Amino acid sequence: MLSSATTNPAGEPLYVARDGGRLTVVAARYAAVLFDLLTGLLDSWSLWNAVARDEGTGRRWRTAYLRRTYAVGRYQPYPELVAEAARDQDLDPVLADQLVARWDELRPWPEAVAVLTGLAGSVPLGVVTNCSNELGRRAAERVGVPFDLVVTAERAGAYKPRPEPYHYALEELAVAPEAVLFVAGSPNDLIGAGAAGMPVWWHNRLHLDRGAAPPPIAEHDTLTPLTAAVLG
Fold first, then answer.
1. Can you give the pTM of this predicted structure?
2. I need a labelling partner for 77 at 20 to 30 A (CA). Which of 29, 84, 100, 206 fits?
3. Mean pLDDT calculated for residue range 125-154
4. For 207, left (φ over 0), alpha (ψ -120 to 50), or beta?
5. Rg of the chain (C-alpha set)
6. Average pLDDT over residues 9-29
7. Domains plus CATH for the chain?
8. CB of 126 within 8 A of CB of 151?
């Protein structure tokens, strides 16, 4: 559990972290950092493209899946939604089974491990991801840095950008939303995490259009600037 403690001479907040019953002051601008996993930290798009056998088909399939996921809200089995999205694009629904079978081919963005390693000693890190418990665990392991919290759509009972996954993570952290930085991978996290009261930093690796989503506090196509945003 974390709580706001004091400020440094510049007026920036410091936080108290409870570690084995001890209190440790964490010199960070946020009490915790939460990440979108499958775009914010991992290059899952390349895996979808590989399973679909070409980039255009993979993006059409992934986009159809995203439409279904964001429309369904309440949790339905992830492979079912992936298969339904394939059917939407006149693709063989067996692609969903192939995606799950190749899930451990997921790779983090090149700078992700170094950035997370640099943050891990100063602030708790967690992920909030739109997939099943099993796939969320496997995907988090692919990052290569341990997380303090992994919240999946299955665990929260709903898919982002509904509020349940974000609120579940905040309750687990026991931190006020304004003290938690959310690192988004897509415009839908700008909507969902922002509505939950968290400041949102957008890792827009794919140069997606923000559309009608609210603006983030920062937008970058690499994770590298995140270290300074969190630690100053």
1. 0.89
2. 206
3. 98
4. left
5. 18
6. 50
7. 30-42+106-231 (3.40.50.1000), 45-104 (no CATH)
8. yes
